[in-house]
Design a protein that fits this description.
Layout lengths: L1 H21 L8 H16 L4 H34 L9 H33 L1
Helix pairs in contact: 1-2, 1-4, 2-3, 3-4
Amino acid sequence: MAKLTMVVGVLLILLGGGVFAGVSQAPTTLIPAYFGVALVLCGALANTEDAKRRMLWMHIAVTLGLIGFLFPFVRSVGGAVKMMTGHADQVLRPLAVEESMAMALICLVFTALCVRSFIRARITRTA
């Protein structure tokens, strides 16, 4: 899971950095990149043989993943619904909505995979 955490972190860095470099110079476009850096750091620190240390850093990473899903999703779901129903002209910053929803999707998949891994680890430990 530590390697997956680092891969997801790199994806978020690419998302934030790509939007910042390619389309908008707004500092808020780098928010996914900040989450990505934190996830890469958690993944690197979780890449150890010490089970307790690995569990700690992976739990921190999944918490970041959950926050990385919840806040962008709640913030942009209204704009996304407007855009999908053909009212994109009513959305002030469509690119921000798209970037937020992409971050939310990446973080949701990451969180689900982590939870699945945690459940499997607990079943293996008790069996």
